[in-house]
Amino acid sequence: MSGRFEKRIAVRKTLDPMTRSVDLDGRIIDCNDKYARMLGYMKDEVIGMSIFDHTPEESHERLKTIFNQWRRHESVNNRRFPLITRSGNVFDVLITVGDVVGSDGKLVRSRTVLLDYEEVQNLQELVKLSKYESLYEHSPEMYRTVNTDGIIVHCNNRYAEKMEYAKSEIIGRNLVEHTADKSISDILINMAQWRFSGVCHSGEIWMKPKTSKEFLALVTPTNLYDDEGALIGRNVVIQDMTKMQETTQMLEERRKIDQMKDEFLTGITHELKTPLTPIIGFSQALGKPGMLGDLNKRQADAVNTILNNATHLKQLVTDLLDIHKLELGRMKFKMAEFDLKDLLNNVTSSIIHAANEKNIKIKVTSKTRGTIVGDQFRIAEVMTNILYNAIDFSPNDTGRIEIIVEKEDEMIKFSIKDNGTGIPEDKQSELFNKFYQIATSMERRHGGTGLGLSICKGLVEGMGGTIGVVSKMGEGSTFHFTINPRGVES
Amino acid sequence: MKILIIDDNTDIRMLLEMTINAMGHEFNSTPSGLEGLEMIKGEIYDLVLLDLTMPNFSGLDVLNALDEEGLCTRQPIVLFTASLYLSTSDMEEKLMNKEIHSILSKPSDIDQIMQKINEIQAEYESKNK
After folding, report:
1. Is it true that domain A251-328 has CATH number 1.25.40?
2. Among candidates B9, B83, B109 on the partner chain, residue whose Cβ is nearest the Cβ of A270
3. Where in chain A is CATH 3.30.565.10?
4. Which residues of chain A does B12 touch, with a Cβ-Cβ cutoff of 8 Å?
5. Could you tell me which chain B residue has the CA closest to the CA of A278?
6. What percent of chain A has pLDDT over 90?
7. Residue range(s) in chain A whose domain bears CATH number 3.30.450.20
8. Which residue of A has its CA nearest to B10?
9. Nearest alpha carbon to residue A462 among A344, A359, A276, A333
């Protein structure tokens, strides 16, 4: 019984496979320690013995068959076969025979792996006993179970199908054989770390099916322990990442195209600006008395029309660039401390001319004072934009616009209130969309590009605030936005 | 005042020349950054209008060369450029440390150009009082 006892101890301690190397006469020329120990010998004693010495007599005929198969280069995979120990105990192993071939291509010796059938069964039992057995067996994902040496002791149908082997061809193989060359070192390192620490790391490896192309897989292991808590193997879920890899590649390509489009748009808008400078400049010069000679009325009107349209185009180009920068998150804000009073003065003086033309009164109500940190230029841009809209939509002579600045929670709130036509409720949410213009047919003195409010929204949000509108038809509108008075990082 | 215009675009140069002329100032102009650099080294201008994107020797090259010789602050330099919006160029960052007077972004109308020149003239006059 001593052999059997030795064997049981061995199961507990390690799950190394037994290996032996056999020459063409069936003589054992090498073996590992476990092989010798399991059979109750010292390693030195085993070398030179015949494989028939380790096979029970009743199985000698079968051994001959297997041995001859091997010599004829036929594969021997996971053949269940008995071994006999020195003290006469018989136990089963799964035999897999590999070839060592000389430089002349002729068979020199075998490299035989023998797995203790009981160990394999134990692991398979463990898998079967688990309540996940059904999930394991019928999962659409690949599952395999390996012992601490990386020998595959069990796998599910899906695994066999994807790897293009029969299950019987898989059991007993080292997982390295199913691993693409480029991932072998990864998996060996992973296995070594795992054996040492018991910690399973998931990771990506390239799998090597029998004939199909290698594929990338996400490998997620779970430890298996025996009754006494010793680590005996791991259950591994293997997910084919090909689809995800393709998706990632597609996304990457799409990102590149987007980037090209972005660069094209930025480039083309830039190119558009250069010729605009002389167009606008010379039309202005023609209109200035004394600069390039006087024009008659029709000529002056024509030049003025060129100028108005060129100016509109310039605004459109600038707005497009701003929108583009906001959308790409490339808008840079220049944060600096400034006095709210200066901001309000600058804004009102820039629009007062337009307001005076329509005889519209502007009132400023400042409920908070002092300095804040922010991009004064951009805040002014938002205010002017809203104010020009308010002027455009307010009636001549009776138009009233009020600018209110106040603290709201930790923010500064700007409100611009007009007594204009008002905005229908169902249109209010669309106002801040690109190219949305309410009542486009209405004559707009300040020639909106349809981008103004969407730029305002982008700018305000970029400066950490929110923007909105409250309006009722016939009662005017109030646009309001908030700004973080401590600035934002850009 | 004597103003130097450095811009590779003939039309824009012509516009600037005409405006400056109408304002009664003197000017020199060149389409080449390198030539402009030599002119700044050779003579003290009251204002340099410098384009940023020029072939071979850009406005940034001019600024870098002037910086090395400590000539950036000898006269006010106003950048006249459309490139600040070029998101790929990070021009703003490159200009961060340069001692320029201000930036006039294209497309500017001539009122803005004239306003800028008047602003510099006012500073020039208050300094020379």
Report:
1. no
2. B83
3. 336-483
4. 274, 277-278, 281
5. B12
6. 30
7. 13-116, 137-240
8. A278
9. A333
User: What sign has the CA pseudo-torsion A283, A285, A289, A294?
Assistant: negative
Domain with CATH 1.10.287 in chain A: 251-328
Instruction: Report the 10 Å Cβ neighbour count for A397.
Output: 9
Per-residue pLDDT at B87 exceeds 90? no
> Chain B partners of A349 at a C-beta cutoff of 8 Å?
none
Cβ(A393)–Cβ(A360) below 8 Å: no
CB < 8 Å from A in window 31-90 of B: 82-83, 85-88
Higher pLDDT, A416 or A440: A416
Restricting to B residues 103-122, those with a Cβ less than 8 Å away from any Cβ of A are 106-111, 113
Q: How many angstroms separate the CA atoms of B37 and B43, rounded?
A: 10
Q: How far is CA A210 from the centre of its chain?
A: 30
SS (H, E, C) A209-253: CCCCCCEEEEEEEEEEECCCCCEEEEEEEEEECHHHHHHHHHHHH
- Which residue matches tokens 């605030």? A465
Distances from the Cα of A444 to the Cα of A39, A431, A449, angstroms: 100, 16, 10
CATH topology of domain A336-483: Heat Shock Protein 90 (3.30.565)
Q: Which residue from A83, A366, A132 is spatially nearest to A237, judged by alpha carbons?
A: A132
Of the candidates A281, A324, A328, the beta carbon closest to that of B110 is on: A281
Residue of B nearest to A320 (CA): B85
Radius of gyration over alpha carbons of chain A, in Å? 41
Establish if A91 touches chain B: CB-CB under 8 angstroms: no
Contact A281 B92 (CB under 8 A): no
Q: Where are the beta strands (DSSP E) in chain B?
A: 2-6, 26-30, 47-51, 77-81, 102-105
**Higher pLDDT, residue A82 or B74:** A82
Q: Give A205-251 pLDDT, tens digit per residue.
A: 999 999 999 999 988 888 888 777 778 888 888 988 888 888 888 98
CB contact under 8 A, B107 and A314: yes
Q: What is the CATH number of domain A137-240?
A: 3.30.450.20
Taking an 8 Å cut-off on Cβ atoms, the answer to whether A278 and B92 are in contact is no
Gap from A273 CA to chain B (nearest CA, Å): 6
Chain A CB contacts of B86 below 8 Å: 266-267, 270
Query: Please, are residues A363 and A401 in contact by the beta-carbon 8 Å criterion?
Result: yes
CATH number of A13-116: 3.30.450.20
Tokens found for residue A373 = 């940190």
- Whole-model pTM: value is 0.53
pLDDT tens track for A49-101: 999 999 999 999 999 988 888 888 877 777 888 999 999 999 998 888 877 77
Chosen for mutation from B8, B15, B113 (greatest number of chain A CBs closer than 10 Å) is B15
Any B CB within 8 A of A278 CB: yes
- Measured in whole angstroms, the distance separating CA A395 from the mean position of its chain's CA atoms is 54
| Residue B121 scores a pLDDT above 60 | yes
Say how many C-beta atoms besides its own lie within 10 A of residue B49's C-beta: 27
CB of A292 within 8 Å of any CB in chain B? yes
